[in-house]
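PT: before anyone asks, these are the final sequences, not the draft ones from last week. 728 residues across everything. Please model them as a single complex and drop the result in this thread when it's through.
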Amino acid sequence: MRRSLSRLFPDTVASRAILILVAALLAFHFLGYWAYRVGVEGLATAARDRGLAERMVSIKRAIASLPEAPDRDRVAHDLSSASLEVHWSKVSLVLGSAPQTERTRTMEARLKELVPDLAAESFRVGFADDGALEAGDADAYKHMMLVSVRLDDGSWVNFSSSALGATQHADWSVLAVTICFGVGIVVVALLLLSWAIRPLRDLAIAAERFSLDQTPQPLSESGPAEVRRAARAFNTMRERIQRLVAERMQALAAVSHDLRTPITRLRLRSELLDDDAARVMVDADLNEMEGMIDSTLEYLRGGVSSEPIRAIDIASVIETIVDEQLDQGQKVTLSGLSSAPVLGRFLSLKRAFSNIIGNAVKYGTNVAISIDETDGHLVVAVEDEGPGIPPSDMERVFHPFVRLEESRGRETGGSGLGLTIASAVIHSHGGRILLANRSSGGLRVTLALPKLDLESAQVIEAVRPHLRDIRESS
Amino acid sequence: MNQAPASISSDDHGHVLVVDDDPQIRLLVARFLQRHGYQVTGASDGRGMMDVLAHTEIDLIVLDLMLPGRSGVELCREVRATSQVPIVMLTARSEESDRILGLEGGADDYVTKPFSPRELLARVRAVLRRSRTARGLGGARASEFVSFDGWKMDMRRRELQSPSGTLVDLSTGEFDLLVAFVEHANRVLSREALMQFAKARASDDPFDRTIDVQISRLRRKLEADRNGWQLIKTIRGAGYMFTSSVRSHEGLPA
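LR: through. Structure below.
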């Protein structure tokens, strides 16, 4: 119930603003209408009622001055008008027994107040008795009000007026005008609001698209004051984040550069060692250290890469990685497509596939890799015969610095960043990465990347910057 | 290129100038290169380097990109303004911008830091060989770009582009082999000669694959493209031959 209510409740700034406008308009209209009724119309009614009352007094006097009954009746008729009907009769049309209601008493007091002359007269105020009153019908009060004034000889002049004390009916035209105003305001407000809210929408879009990958494009600080302020705050925040990241990167680059120098020295020293076995082991340790520095830097770079995007044959990249593993005595097989063009950053992609294949080799003994194409995507499946990953950890392994083998000893090494980097790279290339345990045991990593259609103009666009690059450098 | 000898002269040694601000690395690189038959002089910065160049005949410069004072790129440009002496740049690893920067400065090749000494040795050998081949032809420098059958090779960036425009990844050994083939196109290369080209990398490696494996891997990558079939022919009993018309460019292949 609450949910359906909240769904009805306007959600966007525009709809809320329109709701506020319409509500304010309605309130204004009805308050104005009420004030009009109470004030202006009250005065007008009083003036009209006074006029009627004065006419009643003068008509009564005119009739009273005539002695003959037929004359009285004729004059009464002659003096009748559309707004005031006059009858002369022996009896009062307002029955003495007619119940005094609040309204009749009010009317009586009002008439006396308006025309003090009338106060001296003996008169009755009541409703035309058509039986409705006795039936207790509430509508009876809307029936014509009668005023009977007694002449000295005991006969009565009866006045009846539709205008006299009549209740004002709700004016439908007022409602129509209000509705027209409302519709007009909604239309105008929609147009104006979409204009006024555009900067806000731009701000939201800029915040959504915010990434360190792109060159910062400051949000234009336009629109209403609040939005300008938000845009300014957003720009400042972005600058601050970028400065922070840049500073960290600089610090890290400095550290990694400083580390590279001793590693380079160690490599040179190990090369000068006469003990071959020791050299091989030192080299292996150095490789591991380098790998850790590289992957940490790659992770901290957070997808920011100065590498150009170009057309790459990913099959050749995988072949190179597989060959390298074969040279190190690993059991890896490769099948499927021999040519697999994608658009991307070469070093990033190579690192991603290196990490995935390296993991498979590390945890599973026999690794089978296949490259296929489905639905415009190149699908690379890497299957190993290792222990797989517990289903509860499937999500967690993508988190940085998570190493599942921690519970099983650290013999496999690694920084815990391999999958994190691979998945960041694949996602930044518009691809997907999926982990699944194979029914026959072992893990299957499926990587899908959008295939580059070499026939399309896209490749020309993709390659052109690179070609220009070469031309400039030569 | 037609005059180039099909076999490699054993005398590919020369005088190498090592420019690095770290004295230990200078010393260690010097000792390592000396061990492999090179004469080595060290310099700690641009001024020292210019001093050496002014007074000594240098065959190759190993230049660190990150130097105090003037950067390696600046120095590289300055050297290029007056001399064609080959330069191998030492750059930070996986920083693509550094790599491009180094090459744009006019370096002939680069090694990423922390480099393996053998990698450096292989680069020094390859660059020296290429520059000597070019000098033998009277050309000022080795060509930067080579094209054959729609394939394009960027010698400095060590990149191969297929006729369909995709970048084809080659291992260091495969690229060196392809360079050897391209430089000796339409001539039979013996397995021994090819082994010489890839020697620096493969030597002492317990998992070393034979040259035939390297060639079959290179072939597989070339044959992934329509225009890659039968580029490398097996000549029974003699070796291999690269059959294509190779064009060299200083600039971008047309």
